[in-house]
Automatic annotation (TrEMBL):
Organism per entry: Marinifilum breve
Broad EC category: isomerase
Cofactor(s) needed for function: Zn(2+)
Annotated binding of Zn(2+), by residue: 198, 200, 205, 247
Name assigned to this protein: 4-deoxy-L-threo-5-hexosulose-uronate ketol-isomerase
Length: 280
């Protein structure tokens, strides 16, 4: 029990066209993110974003550096976003403790040396979902509660995509170097997210799906708009989306997902839209 990590390489869209199901899953799908007693990290060559999870039970878990970083400590050259998708917990940042309830977020700036994760109740442990990106400036550590989020209502029930978008760690709420994170909640009866689909060559993205009911699944769509592919996903699983790929999904039930981005700019509206009837 402790720290686990793996690495993922970037792929060319021309290569991805030839991938079978297993290869697609190996390249883009991230599973086993939430394991009790562990910190699990996946280091991607897409803008060097790290996706991870920490599930402390009885013992506190520490976020330590991993070999690919070649760093003395994890945030030596990085910033970190955390969203709690489990029971009540806390994150200690160089001795300062931040309590995070369900769906509350925390931004931790570059240079913080000791990050510790704890759960209030071992019977209902916290599930801390994390995104981390390279950083060059130091910004303050900030907690973003549900009341602090920028909330946008999107979609229509007749199109099965009624959803509530919560901007958590974005340039409109706090200062970051390149990291952006938010949460989109599908309303009952709606299943489509991020439709119309889009790409943004300035930024990569990662999606983390949760609140997927037992026995249900998510069909995540990726690939170039004229050459799409799909991945079937379960609860508390994530997917890397390259800059050239769309990122959209439909579920067999409503669900919630956390989106995280890293890249060249912080403009949330920077999207190259592709209408549904243009997809192939």
């Amino acid at each position: 029990m402790g720290l686990k990590y793996e690495e993922r390489y970037a792929t060319h869209p021309a290569d991805a066209k030839s991938y079978d199901t297993n290869r697609l899953r190996d390249e883009y799908l991230v599973q086993n993110i939430m394991e009790e007693g562990n910190v699990n990290l996946t280091y991607s060559q897409y803008d060097r974003l790290i996706v991870g999870g920490a599930v402390p039970v009885k013992e506190t878990l520490k976020l330590e550096s991993i070999d690919p970083l070649k760093a003395e400590y994890f945030l030596e050259r990085r910033e970190l976003g955390i969203v709690n998708v489990g029971g009540k917990g806390s994150v200690s940042v160089d001795g300062e403790v931040y309590e995070l309830d369900y769906k509350e977020a925390l931004y931790v700036g570059k240079g913080k040396k000791e990050i510790l994760f704890s759960s209030e109740n071992a019977e209902a442990p916290a599930h801390f979902y994390m995104n981390s990106a390279p950083a060059h400036e130091v910004f303050p550590t900030v907690k973003i509660g549900r009341e602090d989020a920028i909330i946008i209502e999107l979609g229509e029930p007749e199109n099965s995509n009624r959803r509530t978008l919560n901007k958590l760690i974005v340039s409109d709420t706090i200062k970051t170097n390149q990291l952006q994170m938010g949460m989109t909640e599908l309303h009952p009866g709606s299943v489509w997210n991020t439709m119309p689909a889009h790409t943004h060559s300035r930024r990569m993205e990662a999606y983390f799906y949760f609140e997927v009911p037992k026995g249900q699944a998510i069909c995540h769509f990726m690939g170039e708009p004229k050459e799409t592919r799909h991945l079937w996903m379960g609860n508390e699983e994530a997917v890397f989306s390259p800059t050239w790929s769309i990122h959209s999904a439909a579920g067999t039930s409503n669900y919630t997902f956390i989106w995280g981005m890293g890249g060249e700019n912080l403009d949330y509206g920077d999207m190259d839209i592709c209408q549904p009837d243009e997809l192939r």
